[in-house]
Amino acid sequence: MKKKLIIGIVLVALGILYLKVISPVFHIHIPCVFKKITGLDCPGCGMTRAALAMLDGDFYQAFRFNMLVFVLAPIYLLYLYFEGKNKQRSSKYLMGGMLILSGLFFILRNTEMFNFLAPTQL
Questions:
Q1: What is the pTM of this model?
Q2: Do the beta carbons of residue 91 and residue 77 sit within 8 Å?
C-alpha cells in the first residue's frame, strides 16, 4: 500500500509541476485529440483548465470548465474504498455508473440544448 501511495504522490507532484511550471513557461499544452478529429467535446475536455483553476483555488471556474470531475471524484473515492475492502460487486456497479455518467455527459454537452455543459472559453 505504501508503494501505491508514493507512486500516487509522485504522479500528483509531476502533474502540478507540469500545470504550474512547464506548461506556462514553455507553452506546452495538452490538446484534445478527440476534439481535433471530431470537433466534439469529450468528457475530459476542459479538465486541464479545471485542474489549473483548482490549483489556484477557483473552484467556481473549475466547475465551469468541467463539472464532471466534481461528480466523478467522490464516486471514484468510494470505488477505491470498495476495491480495498474486496467488495467486487459494489465496485463494479460504481465503475459502471461512472462510465454511464461519462457517456451521458459526453452526449449532453454536445447537444444544443445542453451546450452550457461544454467547457467555458478562456
A1: 0.79
A2: no
- Which pLDDT tens digit goes with each residue over 83-120? 889 898 999 999 999 999 999 999 999 999 998 898 88
- CA 1, CA 80: separation in Å to the nearest integer? 13
- 3-state per-residue secondary structure call for the chain: CHHHHHHHHHHHHHHHHHHHHHHHHHCCCCCCHHHHHHCCCCCCCCHHHHHHHHHCCCHHHHHHHCCHHHHHHHHHHHHHHHHHCCCHHHHHHHHHHHHHHHHHHHHHHCCCCCHHHCCCCC
